[in-house]
Amino acid sequence: MSTPLPVQPPPIHEPIPGLYQVSMPIPVPLRAVNVYLLSGPEGWTVVDTGFHTAETEVRWRLALDALGIGFRDLTAIVVSHYHPDHIGCAGWLQEQSGAPVLMLRQEIPQVERFWRPGSPAGEAIAAFFEAHGMPVPEAGPLGGHHLEQVARVTPFPRITPVDPGQELRLGGWRFQVHWAPGHAEGLMVLWEPDARFLLADDLILATITPNISLWPFSVENPLDQYLSSLGRIAPLPARLVLPGHRAPIGDLAGRVGEIVLHHRDRLDRVEAIVRELERDGGPAPVTGWDVNLRLFGPQPDLFRSRFAMAETLAHLDYLAVHGRLRQEEGNGSPARICYRTV
Known about the structure:
Layout: E1 12-16, E2 19-25, E3 32-38, E4 44-47, H1 54-67, E5 74-78, H2 84-87, H3 90-97, E6 101-104, H4 108-115, H5 121-131, H6 136-139, H7 142-151, E7 159-162, E8 167-170, E9 173-179, E10 188-192, E11 197-201, H8 222-233, E12 240-243, H9 252-281, H10 288-296, H11 302-321, E13 325-329, E14 337-341
Parallel strand pairs: 4-5, 5-6, 6-7, 11-12
Antiparallel strand pairs: 1-2, 2-3, 3-4, 8-9, 9-10, 10-11, 13-14
Helix pairs in contact: 5-7, 9-10, 9-11, 10-11
Domain Metallo-beta-lactamase: 32-245
Organism: Limnochorda pilosa
Pfam families: B_lactamase-like_C (PF21221), Lactamase_B (PF00753)
């Protein structure tokens, strides 16, 4: 007989009657993702799922037991975006429950690119970062690192698309579907206009800023998209914002203002770093890797190295699109893409 895994039940809170926030531990520096369970007369809805690991399976069983329900009580599984801490367990939960997995139509191509078994996404990310100056010893392991994440997003779910502007009846509420690209191209947030609460996922977080990344499959200028999304969501008269990580937020517009200011400051800092590197390095072209090291410094693991580099590139991309920097060929540098001040 196998010994049960020494897994503790995840913390469960009820910020709104009938809506439960489950803090699901995840094996990355964020430590936990908020998943939500919404009760209703026709069954229960899950919003986001955590990585798929053996420990997460146990925690899901413990969470459902604590709420007095089973897998067959789940009638819908909503996934806010393609990141593995949000979609990872969706396929497994679908197998257990038979419930449909709902995602915004605009996000499904990213799910296919990143998580469909056999996808070359890891190699594409490594090549993309090398083109921006990341040395081969640092970029090379990213392919294997990505395969580790693919294993945490299996089995691959059968996805039912949702469209912006659609109304979803989930639990006992009627939600308006909003498309909020930036953190992910097809990030879905759910607004309940009667109860005035927002399931914001990773659009807005209370004590940290969501990662805004430029990947080889990204649309141009994801940071611009993100700031535009914040501008569209900020006027909602929310009493409560329920995020994808950490604590709920009471002041939506105030927190949006803080995040916008953070990115304005970071854009100024990135532009200044390019100027400093030009001054210090003479005619040598400035690469994204150079800026990343000056902005974030060396990272202790592949997970953080990957996201620091992608965040740096998103800010460089914004500055280039808006004419504050010039992107050019590497001119003999190992990097194919470099940056200059204008």
